Amino acid sequence: MRPVIGVSCYGERARWGAWDVDAVVLHRAYVEALETSGAAVVLLPPMHDESSIDAVLEKLDGLVLAGGADLEPASYGAEPHETTDTPRLDRDATERLLYHGARQLGLPVLGICRGMQVMAVASGGALIQDLPSAGYGTAHREAPGTFTEHGATFAPDSLVARIHGGTELVVNSSHHQAVADPGTLRITGHAADGTVEVLEDPDAAFVLGVQWHPEMSDDRRLFAALAAAARRSAHVDA
User: Fold this and answer.
1) Of the residues 95, 113, 197, 200, which is catalytic?
2) pTM of the model
3) Do residues 90 and 71 lie in contact, with contact meaning Cβ atoms separated by under 8 Å?
4) What pLDDT score was predicted for residue 161?
């Protein structure tokens, strides 16, 4: 049996066919990456009822917090920078509850880009709202909707290093914000310019956030490791 992994989704205006409506959307790459890694996928929309979130989490074996728009700066005690996206408050609230609920249940968690930032803020941390104006340049994104490649270095004793079989990796980035304070999580990866690339909870079996986009590459090691952790957590036979 396949472990069931939930993936948080965007709540955005979207057009298809005859429709131009508020919709729940997700890049298909997330689904393909998880399915090819041995997991079954459930899409998790922004929700307004906390009991719905609790009910969904009870059915899951793992959680992915996906990329997307910037978090509301007020959630980490900051005023919005001029470059910060219009907040998606329902998604922010849903993902915080999903993360806290998954932690309480001991579920494996993988945060990707925005997802890692959600983990940091939900753990009491804070963000750099705009890397270029903070002096980091455009090494992590030259323009919205584009990816740049750069190196990342991992702590030798980290989960991310064990998954990748080493302490260095070339990653693909598309973000203009970054983690300034990890809260209660541990920083286990950096880019050469000091930008935080990985967060973990070393006291948990699998709680990992990465600032890059593994779903947009052919490297499935993170997703395979998540699926394996979810299988162990759920006691699902391989």
Assistant:
1) 113
2) 0.96
3) no
4) 98
